[in-house]
Amino acid sequence: MVEIVTLLSKLLEIDLRRALCTILLLFFLMAAYIQSYAFVDDVPGVNKPPLYDLLRPFDFWAPAMLLIMPMALLTLPLQWLGFSPLSSPLVWPLQAIYLYFLSCLLAFGHDRWGAKWRKGWRWLIWLLPFLIVAVLWMPGMLAGMSAFWNALPFFISSILFTGCVLSLYIYIAACFGVGVYKKLRAHP
User: Fold this and answer.
1) How far is CA 145 from CA 18, 131, 160, in A?
2) What domain range is 55 assigned to?
């Protein structure tokens, strides 16, 4: 029991890296929230949020939905009971807690297992999602080649942000996967 409490305290400890990562991810979600105005811009009485025109050429919304998808799946039982925390005033505190926990998992997993990998493997794990996203997005980009130059910031940000979100999840899973593998291998 003491080992679990010690492990949890190391996992959830507050430091500068975790706080900065959480703040960066929160700004990312705020940009996606601002971009969600595109879905309701024709509704009368809804004011355009600040920075909407500045953020419009970039793709924040889809990668942000990918980022909070695990949180949405975790709150699914509450939604079945009729309480939807994602459409209530609790959404921002809930997302801040979720993003802090995600930052803690990233920092803890990297410090404990990821930093011990050879650099070639570590960069491959971060680079692989970008390659997958680029291959998946490329046919759509090439099909609209006439409008390609106008939509170039959207395509680049889409590949960049979606690749970052996928890399985050893959790196966390790989770090903890190595930890579980080492535990299982140590105990026959």
Assistant:
1) 41, 20, 19
2) 2-186
